[in-house]
Amino acid sequence: MKDMLDAAFLSHALFWLIGAMTVCATVLATAALFSMGRSGYRKD
What we know:
The protein is mostly helical.
């Protein structure tokens, strides 16, 4: 059985981990900025 933890697999997994973190951060930052922008128009 071939060892799965070779350099190619680790670099691929690291690339996808960084990509997933980047997508999550982009979505959350966009939602936060949208929420902050909308809060100025509310009449609570």
